[in-house]
Write a structure and sequence with these properties.
- The chain is of the alpha+beta class.
- The chain has helices spanning 44-47, 61-71, 75-86, 106-111, 120-137, 142-151, 153-159, 166-179, and strands spanning 2-4, 16-19, 25-28, 37-38, 199-202, 208-211, 221-223.
- 37% of the residues lie in helices and 11% in strands.
- The chain has a 4-stranded mixed sheet with strand order 1-3-2-4, with no helix packed on it. A 3-stranded antiparallel sheet has the order 6-5-7, with no helix packed on it.
- Strand 5 (199-202) and strand 6 form a beta hairpin.
- The chain has 3 domains: 2-42, no CATH class; 51-179, Lysozyme, CATH 1.10.530.10; 194-224, no CATH class.
- The protein starts with a strand and ends with a strand.
């Protein structure tokens, strides 16, 4: 078992590791126990989340399948994103505050209706819904969608492609290698049942809101 603890810390803060007698491993940047050992890296990516071997996804296979089928995504793609984001650790917390299996930021989780990011089903549901939105936003371009999931839409739009961030470039490469999706976007959800439309609103201050309510006159800019 792996537990990850994080608190606000300045850039360059060190990471520490504690292994319990029962094999549970804790990571933190603010050790409160003298048994913590200095590790020498500062982020989940450096810690090896992107280099973890293929592991057992059985504990979350039902949640992954349900969300993947609901939003028309391959299970392999969802699983690869989870592995890259958290190494299948449902309690993972990044230094920036992203939480859970698919590393949702609190504000993003709230707009997606995720009340508890550490609940695997809720986290996967929210993460897959957000990934579906990004794949629709960059139609036919899985790498762009993955880069936006990792670094944000603003970075992808600003650089008109995958931003020149080593972590983001490594992230996109690793996910694509594990899925073989390359540049072909997953097909849209099947029309076997009504698909709920989620509208994306952006106000004058740049605040994003997701809602199933259609736009009204004189409201904020909205796009499905």
């Amino acid at each position: 078992m792996i537990a990850l603890v994080s608190s606000a810390a300045p850039a360059g803060a060190e990471s520490f590791k504690l292994t319990e007698p029962d094999g549970t491993v804790h990571f933190t940047n603010a050790p409160t126990d003298p048994r913590y050992q200095r590790m020498g890296f500062n982020s989940g990516t450096e810690a090896g989340f992107l280099r973890l071997p293929q592991g057992d996804t059985a504990p979350y296979v039902d949640e992954i399948r349900d969300a993947a089928e609901r939003y028309g995504l391959p299970m392999k793609l969802v699983s690869a994103v989870i592995r890259a984001e958290s190494g299948f650790n449902p309690r993972a917390v990044s230094r920036k505050g992203a939480q859970g299996l698919m590393q949702l930021m609190p504000t993003t989780a709230a707009t997606l209706g995720v009340r508890n990011s550490f609940d695997p089903r809720q986290n996967i549901e929210g993460g897959v819904r957000h990934l579906r939105y990004l794949l629709d936003r960059y139609p036919g371009n899985v790498p762009f969608a993955l880069a936006a999931y990792n670094a944000g839409e603003g970075a992808v739009d600003s650089y008109r492609g995958i931003p020149p961030y080593p972590e983001t470039q490594q992230y996109v490469q690793k996910v694509l290698e594990r899925t073989g999706t390359d540049k072909q976007a997953p097909a849209p959800p099947k029309k076997t049942e009504p698909v709920q439309v989620i509208y994306r609103y952006e106000d004058n201050e740049g605040t994003l809101t997701f809602s199933n309510l259609p736009p009204v006159n004189r409201g904020p800019t909205a796009s499905p």
